[in-house]
What we know:
Layout: H1 8-15, H2 19-26, H3 34-46, H4 54-60, E1 65-70, H5 76-91, E2 95-100, H6 105-117, E3 122-125, H7 135-142, E4 147-150, E5 160-164, H8 166-179, E6 185-189, H9 195-210, E7 220-222, H10 227-238, E8 246-249, H11 252-264, E9 274-278, E10 292-295, H12 298-314, E11 324-327, E12 330-332
Parallel strand pairs: 1-2, 1-3, 3-4, 4-5, 5-11, 6-7, 6-8, 8-9, 9-10
Antiparallel strand pairs: 10-12
Helix pairs in contact: 1-2, 1-3, 2-3, 5-12, 8-9, 10-11
Amino acid sequence: xxxxxxxxxxxxxxxxxxxxxxxxxxxxxxxxxxxxxxxxxxxxxxxxxxxxxxxxxxxxxxxxxxxxxxxxxxxxxxxxxxxxxxxxxxxxxxxxxxxxxxxxxxxxxxxxxxxxxxxxxxxxxxxxxxxxxxxxxxxxxxxxxxxxxxxxxxxxxxxxxxxxxxxxxxxxxxxxxxxxxxxxxxxxxxxxxxxxxxxxxxxxxxxxxxxxxxxxxxxxxxxxxxxxxxxxxxxxxxxxxxxxxxxxxxxxxxxxxxxxxxxxxxxxxxxxxxxxxxxxxxxxxxxxxxxxxxxxxxxxxxxxxxxxxxxxxxxxxxxxxxxxxxxxxxxxxxxxxxxxxx
Length: 342
């Protein structure tokens, strides 16, 4: 299978026209006959031609620039990851261009296109909440463009990844609630398509099964990470005929509005409902009550992400082994999960 990038020379040869004609047609210049322009554009799409592709750039020069795409830098996890990535990249002599998707699939595609035009040498990406089609990322992999996914990824994309053991972490969080006397434990999850969220649900279910805690799927609620939707889902969860006395939330950003909603219903945390979350954001220690949360090794994750990308950038002829680094987590226990009745 041919992996080398398609060039305008290839298109010109196939259509028996000049390279300059192809170039002008692709730029939409008016002096090109519409029939010729349509033929060029159609063939370019069929051959998956990409202007300013990385392979072409590297053949000419090195920009020493890495493109990083994250869902939202207002999330502590991603801003902290960026700090670690940038520090590791700078130590290796690379600069970083950063884009946010704001959880938009279409914006994720645009970010990739813009970074390609900026001639980045490789990509570090965490997928958006809305991404359910991975062709734009798979295209980078097919073109042998150095790429590492972290935190949010798709199992179908065969590239290097840096993630945590989400199942083990959720198992740990759920077991902690069980050991503190919770008998009906709910899970406030992320979007149903999100691999990370589904892995954590599996860990939650495994802990329930191990300890023979009988709860059904009705105790799993999915939210979209917004405060409004989280409050709505929390109220629905706590309005069950037998509401949970313990809740695991997908992230601290979800836990904050969830606890707010619980308090609005007159519930006391942790006495009426204990809460454990993920990400261990700095504010969690100062929240009321202080939030128990799973801490991820962010500094190490960022460093490892850059290391895996540099391995690809330094490889000869693109011959690199795809690696997946799965890292351990730590449960930080605070007041929100310590029930006085336990």
